[in-house]
Hints:
Layout: E1 3-7, H1 16-35, E2 39-41, H2 43-46, H3 56-67, E3 72-75, H4 83-94, E4 101-103, H5 108-117, H6 122-129
Parallel strand pairs: 1-2, 1-3, 3-4
Amino acid sequence: xxxxxxxxxxxxxxxxxxxxxxxxxxxxxxxxxxxxxxxxxxxxxxxxxxxxxxxxxxxxxxxxxxxxxxxxxxxxxxxxxxxxxxxxxxxxxxxxxxxxxxxxxxxxxxxxxxxxxxxxxxxxxxxxxxxxxxx
Length: 135
């Protein structure tokens, strides 16, 4: 199964309501990505509201570790000012091979095509079309 990392702003100096909105935005796009056939990896949910429990650099390191296990990255709209997201994009480009980076919603069709043709989905397609038969 394709793992699609959903990247976008988490932190917001204006307060908790804006952080919650960022989490919801990531979840909304994650649901759309799931409908395309990938498993969304949403770091916003993994450490939601852990603010202050570890340094920001720890969360960012954990996020990059998760990103390194994903087949592609989907960037939320309005992520251009997020230092964390920009760092994740840079990290994805520097991997060998590079992790494909797509921008939502403009790249939606490209994301769907990537998910559809990726070999990691072949086993899933086989199981859906040829379910195991209990004897």
